[in-house]
Amino acid sequence: MLLAIDTSAGTSVAVVDLARGVIAERGEADTMRHAEIVGPFIVECLREANVVPADLSGVVGGMGPGPFTGLRVGIASARVFALGAGTPLVPVISHDAIAYGHYRRGHTGPLVVVTDARRREIYWSAYSEADAAGLPVRVGPPGLAKPADLDAPTWLHARWPRLDAATVSAGELGLVAELTHAHQRPFAANEPLYLRSPDVTISNGPKRVSR
Amino acid sequence: MTTLNRSAPLVLGIETSCDETGIGIVRGTTLLSNTIASSMDEHARYGGVVPEIAARAHLDELVPAINAAVTEAGIRLSDLDAIAVTCGPGLSGALMVGVGAAKALAVALDKPIYAVNHLVGHVGADLLHSSGDASDTGPLDYPTIALLVSGGHTSLLLVRDLVSDVELLGETIDDAAGEAFDKVARLLSLPYPGGPQIDRVALEGNPKAIRFPRGLSQPKDLAAHRYDFSFSGLKTSVARFVEQRQDAGELVPIGDVAASFREAVVDILLTKALAACADYNVPRLLLGGGVIANARLRQVATERTDAAGVVLRIPPLSLCTDNGAMIAALGAQLIMAGHEPSTLDFGADSTLPVGQIQVSGLARSLGAP
Ligand SMILES: [Zn+2]
Known about the structure:
The structure holds two protein chains of two kinds. By secondary structure, chain A is α/β, with parallel strands linked by helices. Chain A is built from five helices and nine strands, in the order E-E-E-H-E-H-E-H-E-E-E-H-E-H.
């Protein structure tokens, strides 16, 4: 059984199991309240699933891509929950959860997943198909782009069906982790996918104050 | 959850309000670990703390810092009685990392959580002592005036009771004192952080060479801002002085500028703090915050409190800069005073008022739109 936490879009927390699927899940699309609601969501999911932290075999953290401030709350929570519960952290790319859910609901073939990166930019990942295990096969990186870049006919995945998602389901994130583990595939790196440098400018020294 | 140990609770404190990832572990007032990972070096090339760089560093440092603190304290996480965390004031994105982590740790360990005020934490630092050493200065005598000075805040508090009655008397209306040190250091082409650099070059300077202005000290300002601070006028005055010398093709007397600037800062800080002591008839002054590392500030504070018959308390420097131990200490005080834990729905509040010593969570979330 896994606890899954994703704050790459809104806030989503779930308890999942390979055999039983999504046992409990809480979601909130608001992108301003990650730090407030992540705690209550974890408690509610554990309670509803009737599990204690010691029952968990891992904690799944959605690594993004996502706008930094929110994304970090979930990763910090997942890492520290795993530490506290003495169980491994399982990093999963959040876009993989979106793609997994879409394939599971019947989509076949190529797919481009797109999420909001703010500042008039978007995050994207490209998938060729779902494999025999049901796992989405990512063939294009989680990337950062201007919306127009993906509309350009010259873009590699220009003609692929596109899914714009506003939320990520921690239940689906957790199931990706269960399947990845069951089929002995590699997990993602335990690193947040900001895909942007911190925007800072190095000033050219102090400005004059006297004329 | 078992009954909370209220006599000498074992508390882990998480502090991420600025550029230090602080994890502290205390048992009552005994300090067991004060682990700090600072991202200061990463900010140096920008001349000040970059919030996004600080927040990224917190995420990277949290788990290693918790592990290091637990090892140093010689405990297991499961031994803890409670978690305490800074929920404000501070940089919002940075605070959120600590808040999210603290909640997760509390739930994973099934322990109560105390969401506390960073500024009041600075005062709580003074209660800590290492086990069995002579540094135990005993409990705080109330009331006390507290002067908290760092790169993020410059505040004057009246502390009637650490866990129930802290009043903000005044604060900076523009830059924090530590920021002023950084900005003046840049004017003098000295590296970041500015405090130690100003201290270094001031050694060769005359503090009386240049009379820089003391912000908000004129009678007309004192009416509305008796205990408030302002450092932007001082910074501008230093800039103007430097530019005049440069325009005239003269050498800038860096030592004199640094010493005179520092004297102005130290003077205004202590003048206002001692005015508060006198006005409120409180013969006690406590200092906290990273700028307390400034040797001249400590020296003048000692001289002027002695002269005024005011008892001066300064925690060890490792507990003056931002740290998790002071947060754990405040959490432990709240527990020992019988306060109930915060509910899990509190958020990070970058402008948390100092009078709000603990955020309970429920009240705030009900009041939120
Ligand atoms: Zn501070």
